Amino acid sequence: MLVLPVACDADADPEPVEPAWHAALLPDPSGPRGRIAVRDAVRCGGAWTAVGGVVLTEPTDTQDARPAAWRSTDGVTWTALDVTATTYWGRRAVLSTIACAHDRVVAVGARSGGAHGNPRVTTFFEKLGTLDDQRAAFNLYGGATATNVGPIAGADPGWLITGNRISGPAVWHSVDGRDFTIEEGRPGLADEDGFVSLAQGAAWDGDGWVVVGGGNARSTLDREPVVWMSGDAVSWERSEVPGSDAFDDLERVVAVTGDLVALGLRGDTFGVWRRRGDVWSMGEAFGVLPDEARRSPFVSSLVTSGRGLWSTTSDGATYALWHSTDGDEWARATIPVQAPETGGERILTVAADDETVLLLADDGTGGRLWWSAE
User: Fold this and answer.
1) Which of 298, 188, 204 is nearest to 253 (CA)?
2) What's the whole-model pTM score?
3) Phi, psi of 163 (to 5 degrees)
4) Cα 313 to Cα 178: distance, rounded to the nearest angstrom
5) 236-294 pLDDT tens trace
6) Do 26 and 367 meet the contact criterion of CB atoms below 8 Å apart?
């Protein structure tokens, strides 16, 4: 049950939302033992799939972690899902992001290594109830022009991974979840005209892909919110979004009843942006970014549920969970664990469907999962 207290003072911060959290057990996957790491989850094909990895108790000179996944029909009882990894980096990956399309999941994992210690990215696709890694050319996700590989999104056309290359924003897309094609240096997506940008996340709006991020002219550090749109993931168009006089950066976006809602940084707060029809506007700001934070703040997840929207953020020091009934006004939500500090292997993320909200937390010593009925 979800309890939504009502604030009495219109000028005061909204009262905290208090979900009724229940702990769920993630069993140890078969194989070498270690601490469970959880990173992301999605509802797909009538079941939940959570992904992460196992950080080995007894690492070797060549391996300190392995991929892991779990499945549940109700979010309450979980079983370990078989993960079949045959590639060198696939066997060592921790799965960090997962998405659903065509009632199948695709996950993206990585582990740092090689001569320069860069993340080596591997995708995993669902096949007959297991997750299999996909062999790919090194230059597809790495290579001399690599920068980062970000979150994956799923929709009717398939899957889209958002990331960046030296040329600017890039995407990887696939219709079958196995073979991904990179769009790098594409006009309308890549940097041009002295404008440098960073893509952060994506959503399908019913007609096309919408990638969100931020950018600025090379001569200034004044970050502006930016979106890129494409009907086929190949041809792209960049659009400006209203911003403030402060640092603005869109980081996560979801579709909500025909609109789009995006969250990101706005000066020393988090901000809401909304697209109604084809028009973007700035919404309210929420949260405060402490001056003493030692790391960069960011939005780590944004999802929709039967009772509204949920998001997790880091203010640069610790994580927090937020809830909104309509995507406009946001209130803190209580969590069943001390908020993890930001950095390293520590995360807080949220997943949801119409009936259940999942909270995944990892404080660097172990990953845990909770569920709350809507």
Assistant:
1) 204
2) 0.94
3) -170, -165
4) 31
5) 999 989 999 999 999 999 999 889 999 999 999 999 999 999 999 999 999 999 988 88
6) yes
